[in-house]
Amino acid sequence: MEIKESLKLNIQQALKSLNVDLDLEQIIIENSKDPTHGDFASNVAMKSCRYFGKAPKDVAELIVSKLDLSNIKKVEIAGPGFINFFMKNDSISSLINNIIVLNDNYGRGEKKNKKINVEFVSANPTGDLHVGHARGAAIGDAISRILTFDGYDVTREYYINDAGNQIDHLGESLIERYKEILGLPFELPADGYHGEDVRLVAKRIYDEFGPDLLSRPDHFEFFKEKGMEYELDKIKEDLKNYNIVFDVFSSEKKIRAGGAIEKEIEYLKDHVYESEGALVLKTTDFLDDKDRVIKKSNGEYTYFMPDIIYHVNKMSRGFDQLIDVLGADHHGYINRMKSALMMHGYSPDCLQIELIQMVRMMKDGEEFKLSKRTGNGYTLRELCDDAGVDAARYFFVMRNASGHLDFDLDLAVKQSSDNPVYYAQYAHARLCSILASASDIKANESPLLTMPSELDLAKALSNFPEVVKTASKERAPYKITNYIHEVAEKIHAFYTECRVIDRDNLEVTSNRLGLCLASKIVMKNALTLVGVSAPTRM
How far apart are CA 200 and CA 222, in angstroms? Predict the structure, then answer.
C-alpha cells in the first residue's frame, strides 16, 4: 500500500475510534515542503473540528493519540493544527518493494466496471490533419490512456462527417483536378478544396482507375466516395504514426440511414416548435440559454440534428459516460447537447466535453502558420517529421487544454535540459544506463535509504497512484507531465548527490540500484500515460 494511502487509512481509523466517520477523499495528505516539518502533512484536524466542537489544535492532539505509530517515527502538531508525519525509513523501503513487484501495474486503479466513450479528432476526411487536430489528438489519447490505467473500460471513437456539404465540395474539387490531369479545361469551386493534398488524391484516382471516369453516370458519387476513402486512409496513417489507434470509426451517413432524423424529430415532438418556417428544439427547458434550430426554413437540417442522433446512438451502445474532445469554438455546444440527451432521460453528467484552445506554432521567436514545403497549413505529418512524435505529444499535453499554447519548435528539437521531454526521457535513460552498468549486482528491492535526495525521490514515487487518480478524475493529462518533470528533477538530484555504483560498498550500491529500478518503472509508466516513449539510451 502507498504511504499516503496508508496514512489516510490510519487517520480514518483514528477518527472512527473518536466516533467520527470521514471518507478517505476528505482526508488530504500532502508532501511537506520543508523536511524539518516532516515527510507528510495533513490539515484533517482543521477540516473535522466541527464534529468535535473543539479548536483544531485540540482535535489534532486527539487524532494523534489514536494513531497507529508502527510505521511512523514521529508526529508533530504545528501552527493552528497541522499534523506533520516523520516516517520510518523501513516504510519507504516497503514502498520500493511494492513498486518493483507491481512493475507496469504500479499506479493502476481497480476495475471500475464503467464504460467510457472518448471521441476526439473527428476531422472531416477532406484533407490532412493540422496542428490544431494534433493537440486534440494528443490530449484525447492521453485522457483515454489515463482512464484505462485507472480502471475504466475505454473506447476511442472517431466520428466521420461523411454526409454533409463538405464531402460534396471534396467530390467537386477532385473532379476538377482530375480534369486538370486529363488536360481538360477546369475550374476549382470557390468553396472547394484547393490544396496540394487534393491534387495528389486526384492523381491517385487517375493512376488506379484510368482516364475514363467522367463518362460514368455515377462519377460524382464515385469521386466523393473514393476521395473520402483515400483522405481517411491518410488520416489513419498519420494517427498511427502519432501512436494513436481508434477502436471505432462511426459514419454519420450510416447513423442517419433509415430515416433516423425523422424518427428522432418524432421522438422529440413534445420539445419541438415551429418558428418562421424552421423547426426549433426547446433546449431552454433544460440547460441551454436559448432554443436551437434543428431544421432550417429551407428544409436543410442544422449540424446539431445529426449530432443529437450520434450522441443518442453512443449512449444506446451501453456507455456510462461520453467524453467529447472539441475545439474551443464549441463552448455553446455543451449545454445544448446535454439538454438534448436529457430529453431522452439521460443525466446531464453522462456527457463531458473537453475544450481545446488554439495552438500557435513558433520558430525563431516568430509565429508561423504555413508549411514551407507546400505553402498550405502546417500539418501533423510535418510536425512529427520536424519535432518528432514524442516531443509533439509531450508539448501538447503539458499545458491545461483550456489554455492557449505556443509550441516552440526550436525548443522541441533541442537536446538539452531546457527541453522538458528530453529532460524527462534522459532521466529514464540515465537510470537504464546505471542498471545496465551494474547488471551483475542485485538490486535491493527493500532498500535502506538515508540520504535526503534518496528519500525525496522515494516520496515522489509514492505519489504516482494519487496523481493518476487526480488526472483521471479531472481528465487532466498535464498533471501527469507535471509529475514526470518533478520525478525527473529528483532523479537528476539523486544522481548528482549519490554515488550509485560503488564496488567497494556493495550494500549501499544494492540499495541505490533498488531505488533506480523503482524510479525507472514509475518514469516509464508515467511517460506511457501521455503516449511518450521511455528510451533506454539517448
Answer: 17
